[in-house]
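so my prof wants the structure for this chain in the tokens format not the other one, which i didnt know existed until like an hour ago. anyway here's the sequence
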Amino acid sequence: IMTLQVAVTANGRMSLPAHIRKRLGLANGGMVYVEETEAGIVLRTTSQIVAHAQALDKRYAGEPGSSVDDFIAARATESGA
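here's what i got, hopefully its the right format
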């Protein structure tokens, strides 16, 4: 884990250091997602967001009610279909 100080300009721009952009696959530009949490701000790349979603899927896969089919069946039951 690394902590860096990065300046934010008056119009809200900031620059990530080149070594971080390169390591994250952003050397030629790209998108990051900003998540505001109670603990602070988290920046994530698209690949990090996808990896996080896949990890959540693996964690909950197979649990009762966790599949799309389970969701649809539950809604059908609620509506009386």
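also thought this was worth mentioning. DSSP finds three helices and two strands in the chain.
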